[in-house]
Protein 1
Amino acid sequence: MANTETGPIMEFQAVGIGKEYLSLNPNFNALANSLIKTGKKLSHAGMAPFVDIPYNQLPLSQRQAYEEARDSSVLNFGDSNPNIRTGNTYGNLSVLTETRRNREFLITCTGSDMHFLSPGDIAYIYAVLPEQAQVYYYGERAPSSEARIHSAIYRLRQDVKAVVHVHCSEISANPSILGIPITSRFEKQGSIELVNQVVETLKKNPTARAIEMRDHGQIFLARTLDEAVQRALDSKEKLNKLILGIVA
Ligand SMILES: [Zn+2]
């Protein structure tokens, strides 16, 4: 049964076509796990800023991820312990599934906490219709509203198989020092205009491995998730060294 999550035409529209995606392909479990691990690395590195949301207002899949983390180790979450921060983080990650010819992918869902992702925080993007702004997905929750950006990148760049979007304020302040191309103007998150800005910037810079979305954050492109996350971490480190070098 299809359910439409948001918005008028041209605004992002996520259309659910099924909840269960892991059973659709034997490789999806491993891909979902690699997204979960990558999210934790980015969170550790402080590249996925946190937004507080009370535990009881979180989606079920996220509460489950917190509970699993608590069971597995050190942490205490939930209404019983209001001092522990719960919420979600900015940013989103995707990886190509290479199951059909249409460059479909797995991507993190809107409102996920990168530090505690679970399979329920990931959606399988089955098809994207840019003209109608619709994204058809399998998953328990709607995919990131930036799913159309990921889709446009995979269509444009045959060499790219993983995309990592983060909000690193240090890089945003200095993208040109790193040689990272920047979109020509700010556009709203989830808008088709932002998709177009990203595509335009990548067409002007056909070998770019990273771009800065003006007044927003970075997108890193790579052949694998590990490579994409390493590129993000290296960029932050390189920037810090360059700034220290300039100051010294
Ligand atoms: Zn963003």
Protein 2
Amino acid sequence: MGLCYKLFRADVRPHGSEGMDVEGLGKLARWDRPPRAHVGSGGFDPWFVGTSSAQEASPAQPIWTVPEIGALPSNTYGRLVRRGRDLITATYAYIGPEVADRAKRFAGNNLACSNCHLQAGTKKFGIPLFGLFGAFPHYSARSGAQITIEDRINFCMTRSMNGRPLPAGVPEMQALVSYIKFLSTGVSPGQLLPGMGTGKMPELDRAADPARGETGYANACVACHGPDGAGIRRSLPTTDLGYMMPPLWGNDSFNDGAGMARLITAANFLHFNMPHGVDYLNPQLSPEQAWDIAAYVVSRPRPHKAGLEKDFPDLLEKPVDAPYGPYADGFSEQQHKYGPFAPIRAAIAKLKAEQKGTPAPR
Ligand code: HEC
Ligand code: HEC
């Protein structure tokens, strides 16, 4: 148990997450990819460690596991949480652009939240939705203001889902929030779980290359996501059953204001999650392949979100990989889109230091 515990602690080492996430929680809750020691020592994964070993390891650091939705009673609360889970995994069937009730057409595409928030928001480094409820409300650099969990969901509604916001009072929003809250059951205030976000792999010191990525895409992705990135529908000719393989670009995809349209987010998501089925313990794409393929995906056409220039009112807080201006640092949109990012970070650090009236560290 001592050994397991040590490995687990290694896994939860936080690191600075500059540029990874701009919604606040990410600033606190990003972890390096766990050391390979995990795999070498029999694929140990803190995810699967039960409570008893946790107690043996250290009563002060309980190991958390995803709560079991099937164990909820069939009462009003249990039904609400289950409905929230369904909204995550079959979003298109409840609030998609083709549902019968026009008033419920909130999403603008036929994606499901769980196409990106993998395994209904429970997969480590698959942008999980667990353990984050207590971090809201918090400051969002994107809006330059405090945001609630409802506001954060609506960022994904208007960007990843290319739709319109869900009003706070509608039952669908209440169900989504209840499910996300349920996924934080047993997480104490301020506790940071391992596996948040998309993970973090080393960056390239060159710009990521969409042309090389196109070749990688043809090898590793095209069989599922298609040569035109349009994915595979479950029921042709309609999309009412959503996608078997979700689209990566084109009209029915996320828009250019979405997190997945940013290179750092997309590349890490690919490295730790694609081709479908891989996870952070056994990635298949090398970091270099993931950067180049992500560059190809973000270079493809997708819906445009109006008003993006108003994002990140403090431009020094804008993520280095935001693919749209304006920027405070003088680097081109091209370099913000494909990197390399280290020179941009250095320029921003310098500007921040100047703002504080102190000379920049060299
Ligand atoms: C196209 C991919 C995609 C889809 C679809 C999507 N999201 Fe997201 N979501 C993201 C990304 C990327 C982030 C930011 C993660 C990061 O920065 O590491 C995010 C962040 C979030 C967060 C905040 C997580 C945190 O760590 O603070 C919530 C809550 C959320 N999404 C809810 C939803 C809901 C609900 C839906 C469906 C209505 C949805 N998302 C659909 C990609 C997506
Ligand atoms: C074996 C089929 C398969 C392969 C190969 C595959 N994917 Fe996926 N991909 C999926 C499925 C299925 C999902 C949705 C996951 C879910 O809903 O649980 C997905 C989700 C995604 C998403 C997030 C959802 C969206 O619509 O944007 C991205 C981005 C993505 N894949 C990119 C890639 C890239 C790039 C490659 C090649 C490196 C790749 N995938 C290889 C099946 C695959």
